[in-house]
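Field: sequence (string)
Field: structure_tokens (string)

Example rows 1 and 2, in order.
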Amino acid sequence: MNPYKILGANPNMTQRDILQAAALAMRTKLYSAQEIAIAQKELMNPITKASHDFIHFIEVPISCDEFLERPYCEISSPTDLKRLSCFDKKI
């Protein structure tokens, strides 16, 4: 559960902003009242808020989209690969 997504919040919000976001989330009815209450409680507690800040720091879908948009480099044959001689040291 990502409380930031449920409340439409961001990590820089104050406790007052979190309360307002919870009220707005109740009006939009995208999530159940229980989910909104849990998200609000999680973000109001400084310890659980810090853990959510850490866990939800990276938005994975955005990162996946950026990864998929990168050009694909195809090697036509194994002879195109270069050998690294730095690992040839005998023990």
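Row 2 begins here:
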Amino acid sequence: MLNNQCSMGNMVKNDTEKRVYDLEERTARFAEAIIDFCKTIPENVITRPIITQLVKAGTSQAANYYEACEAETTKDFIHKIGIVLKEIRETKLWLRLIARAHEPCKNRSRELWKEAHELNLIFAKSRKTAKENEAKQQRIHH
């Protein structure tokens, strides 16, 4: 049951489209993009703590999504997706702040912010759906 909740993000298109949508892969690639981006930012007294926080939040979202997919209960899945949402929102904040702290990074930061925003929408929908399904199950059993 829980694997189905995680596979909501995994949709394989037919061969002619040659496009695979895999949320696990997407979150991992986003984490890698965050690392690559942070390696290009010059470190100084202002950027150093922001870079540290950005790397932590940007990579934690993927790790926490992997944990959510392994959740043993729907309640645990909902909780872990909530953590993913928190990490994504933090990532968006750090991207905004790094764009302010180092102007030349603004365009790439905005691109990454857009991806973080899309991931946030996907995870929010996944959490909402899981909550609705849990509520239905509770009504059935009561």
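free_text_note (row 2): Residues 1-5, 7-20 have pLDDT under 50 and may be disordered.
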